[in-house]
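Checked the freezer inventory, then went back to the computational side. Two predictions to log before the end of the day. The first one is the construct we discussed on Monday; recording sequence and tokens without edits.
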Amino acid sequence: MITFFTFFGQQARLILALGVLIGLFLPNFGEIVAPALQVLVVLLLATAMIRVDLLQVLSHLKNPIKLGGLLFLLMIALPVIIHLACQFIGLSPVLHIALVLVACAPPLASAPSMAALLKLDDALVLNILVVGTLIVPFTVPLITLYLLELPLNLDPLSLLSRLLLTISLAIILAIFLRKTIGETRLIRYHKLMDGVSALIMLIFAIVIMNGIGLHAFDDMDAFVENLSAALFANWGIHLLFLIVFVASRKISKPRNSLISPTQGAVALMAGNRNAALFLATFPPETVTSLLLFIALAQFPIYLTPLASTPLYGWLTKYKESPPSPSTPTKI
């Protein structure tokens, strides 16, 4: 069993990339385990937090002004900007709500591991993940129901309580398992833990395809619209942040790389959000309307580790060409 999970962890990137495709062809399996969707969301959060000493992270937070500024940018300012953009282009109400909700969500639970893999500032990502997850029960009702007045069929207190319950259960489970297993064994068997996390994510990918399967291709217009929105919500925003960071470094002064590890981490977090958190907190009718978008959003999420490796390898290792020596003028 240990060997199985260890292998699963070592091949996690490939397995997760194939997970969504497997889900398309196994919709019946998704129907069997769909009632456990809320449990899976809690497990996804818990498996990410089990390796994190939450109290230690919170007690060692550095530069609170920088952290607060990034949280404001990623989880408050960006949803408002996307809301205004959706209004400007006249996007359909369902996709409008979906894009704003994604921007309101905290970073993916796997974002710190993804950042470490890409040699970005994984400590910053971990801090944003922990604090962002803790504040999301308060920011989401504030932005979606008060500031933007989105039609979510939920009152603010109900949404707040649902989010608090889901996140609290995940944190309590993570702390319990961390204390039970012990930090030493968590470090020793980190590959096994990678495998457990990958297996939960694989099952989640199959469940999220529940009721969609190949039937999503029946309405190609809806499929293309949702896929385009899902790609923009992840890779589009991700690339927009990278373009801004590259341009800013070029304008300021020549550097040894096109982006810094911190800038790469911010761009990564901007596009990779844990929108699945809302599946455990919204009423069934809202979840049903968003299901196609959230299902298709798994494609860029699960493919990001594979697609981003060469991109960040180039952006972070790029070397400026030295200026050519001027040729003396002959008299």
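The second is the one RB wanted added to the comparison set:
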Amino acid sequence: MSERLDVDEILRRAGFDAETSVLTRRQAEVLAFRERGTAQSTIAERLGTSRANVSSIEGSARENISKARETVAFAEALRAPVRIEVEPESDLYDVPSWVYEACDEAGVKVNQAAPELMKRVSDEAGEAVKGRTVRTALLIGVTHDGEVTVRKSAPEEF
């Protein structure tokens, strides 16, 4: 089935535009096949290249996507009207009250209750949070529409 996929149609339906995308056309093709379960060897045969080249193209595509997501997260953190810096060694359980207080001052409503907010911070911070302890400085942003963003931050130097 995957061998009969019409990659041009898949890309068209997904709205792929090589002029505005961070992906090359070839990267988009490889991802379209891979997301539908096609083996790299089958893709290589279909595209007339090696499996190693398909692997390299896929890796580059996923790296480009990761960089694009990071860039968007950075831009969102910059434009968020509410920004809370959480210092290392802070208790994760204190974070919701800091966020709510800052949002109240800015007139922004948070879309999450305290337990959901702590989970979001913990999940998005990854290794920066261990148990209840924030191990690495974090920057928590809240957008005008109440969406919460979490970024690892470099602590301010004095």
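For RB: The chain has a mean pLDDT of 90. The longest strand covers residues 82-86. Let me know if you want it refolded.
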